Amino acid sequence: MGASLRAVRALVLLAGFYLLGVFLLAALVGVDFAVVTWLHGPVAFKIIIVSVVLAVPIVRGLFMLRTPKGEPPAGIPVTEAQEPLLWRTVREIAQQVGTRAPDEIVLIDEVNAAVAEDARMLGLRPGTRRLYLGLPLMTGLDEMQLRAVLAHEMGHYANFDTRLTPLIARGRAQLIRTIGHFHERADNKVAKERARQEKRDEKRVAKGKGAKGVDTSGQGATYRAMAKIYMAYGNFYMRATRTAGRRQELAADLASVRVAGRDSAASALREINALDSAHDFYMSSYATLGVGAGLLPRPGEVFGGLRKLLDARSEDLDDLRRDLSTEPASPYDSHPPLAERVARIEALPDDGRGGQAARPALELLSDAGAALAALEQVVLTPEALALKRVDWEDLVHQSMTQYVGQGAEEIREAFAAEGAGPGLPALLDAIDADPAVRWRIADRFPKSEEAAAATGRTAREFARPAVRRALNQLVTVELTGRGAARWQLSWSDSAALSYPADGFEEELRLALDAAVADLPDTEPLRKLVLAP
Amino acid sequence: MIGLYILGAMLLFGAFKVLRGVYYIRKAKRLEAEVAALEGRTVASDGRTAAAKAEKKAQQAAAVVALGFVPEAELDTDNARPVPAGRKAALDAVRAGDWEAGAAYVEACGTDWEERWQRVRALAEVAAEDDAWLLAWRAARPADPTAALVNADTSVAVAWNVRGSLTAEHTTREQFRIFHELLVKAQADAHEAQRLAGPADPVPYMIEQPVAQGLGYAHEQYGELWAQITRRDPKVLTAHTSALQYWCAKWRGSHELALAFARESAASGKPGELLSLLPLTAYFEQKVRESDLRSETFFKEPEVVAAVEAALGDLAAADPDDWRTVRLRHLLAYFLFWQDREAEAVEHFRHIDGYIGALPWSYAPRSAYVYARDWTVRKVTPGL
């Protein structure tokens, strides 16, 4: 089958998607017409109502297919005057790939680059083309790798096989999104029904009646039924165009090889695999670490700190660069599994561009720091922007101190309830006076089933680590409060407490052991922590 | 007009459908009622059969009990033999806080290492529940080797209490973590007991055996521990059975290693020293571990029969008052039962009856024991 023939078939299949909706509607109208003609009274009325209910998702389906656009990602548009080098690079790539350069470039906060187009007339006429370019993505790649990624994205819109290729690309994207929308709606409906039933159960329990339990099996059934019909068609469509889809991905990958060189194209794919996880981890464990304590890193660092993490954990990330997924990202995704794509690229003959030096991708920006800072203003919520900005070191120390302090509050309450406390000295006095107070305190902490069932000395062995942890936490609060210990930021490991002197940690370990021993000795702990 | 005909035809068709539906529903209901009645009858007859079976079983069990055997409900699953009188008194005394009575009880057995181990273990089991008296003992006599022994064995017992007796997948990470920490502590306690002990006493090293099992000593390291024990006394029965556990497939060895160790032990013992217990234990552990082995044939293998013959000879040569013969009799009763040698087996059942806290019953105490015993008794008693 020739290229144009394949394209025409894809176009017909896409048109079939609309036809399916129209056909289903026509069938319903036909039924209604028959009912009105042959039946009268309430039965006919009921059947018509049912048919209207069934028609709603179909009409919606058609409607959704026409406008599947989601919210565009928030970002900062940059003009050619602001970022001449970036624009020149993008234009170069577009030219090399053989497609129209984007009309706008928007910098976003994701590990992603995407080209989107406001299609008009079902995508038959080109609209505004936008390049969404993630700063975290640029942070992790060098220039040649970034070129490879951009070449792949623009390659989808390139005019290699036929003039209709962009239309197929758009059609496929729309189809995937439509099925996704159906499922989303069905799920939403189930979630709503679940929430309603759970509320009802809560009320019943509050009134002293038994809960009925939650059953959402019938919910969202019409949506799911419609989704099934569309999915069946979608599967058919995908099967019919799979070879074309894969060809296109291959073409896009080849475009990136042509633009950036074989090794950069392959390493970019490996890097993105590692970058995705690293970025998620960075955002949850570093950038937002201080949020609970009302702190954010300095402007530009919320997204900019990622570079420090990547440098420090380079070896950890090697695993992610090496072990690529052999599963496709989704059943409707036309992308072959990452491992297969990389293997295919690396199997190409050496183009001699392996050793090319490349600067970090962020250097394509006239002022990366300013861009990272500007992005925060657009992406972060007003609440987040109102947080106090501090240096990384202070952020880690202050927020960890606050979190440990909050945790220690509960411990103090448990101690106080047994008449031991509130401070560490009073607690140690209480232990000296009555060693068994420690096991009573442990009874106030949450316990595992096994710990709760244990008796005698076995119960004590379950309690001992819990008491030791609690004591350690109070010691930490005491030491950080006096400025004797400090939470230390580490880009390669979790935050750790740095103690006043070498060997202090080992001494503290022994002192804690002595304080929770069967015959307790609180002296070492007093000397170590409470001595002036 | 045509419309009316069609409408009439449709109505007739509809009426037919409705009437047919009603007919089928009624039929289904009638059939369901019949099925329910039949099911009821089946359940009743099953119940009658089960009741008859249970009654017959109860009669059979009662007949065995009438011959002087202990009823199933009254079997002691904690002890392999009646608790010696002196032990109960000593344990009651320490529970009341009198640790000196405990100390005197252990020291009274002198250099009978087997007995010393038994007495230390009994005290440790009490201490695992409540150790106030042990702490007092240790505080009063910090260098007392016996106190250090009881302390170390208590650490071992508590570690195993935390671990529980369930398989790994039913044991939580918290349990494993604390188990491991406690074993490390028990190891240190055992080493302390070894430091304080008299030079001839192998018991502090025997206490390290379960620690070695739990911490997974390498074969070489275990060999060193074993050498420490055998250098002091090469023939302590419990030291051998404990080491056999280490060499079993379920811990750090294999069937081959376990059997090799057991045969070596048996060969090193003179008749009457009861080390012939070990091959029987090794075969039993293999049978438990390998579910595809059939008791009916496995226990009749020539090498197993030979091991039983050797054990019978060993037992005949042993001092009849030696309580350790009971351990051998438990296994012999079981092996002879599976070898269809009921006439010989029943003699051992008579000896051990009432106390079944021993191998081979420990895996399913009452049912396994009563099944084997009652079968044997019925076989040798005419008219039962």
Automatic annotation (TrEMBL), chain A:
Keywords: Cell membrane, Hydrolase, Membrane, Metal-binding, Metalloprotease, Protease, Transmembrane, Transmembrane helix, Zinc. The keyword Nucleotide-binding does not apply. It holds the Pfam family Peptidase_M48. It comes from the Bacteria. Residues 190-217 are annotated as: Disordered. The chain crosses the membrane at residues 43-63. Residues 190-205 have a biased composition (Basic and acidic residues). Its cofactor is Zn(2+). It is a multi-pass membrane protein. It is found in: Cell membrane. Residues 82-347 form the Peptidase M48 domain. InterPro entries: HtpX_protease, Peptidase_M48. This is Peptidase. The lineage of its organism: Bacteria, Bacillati, Actinomycetota, Actinomycetes, Kitasatosporales.
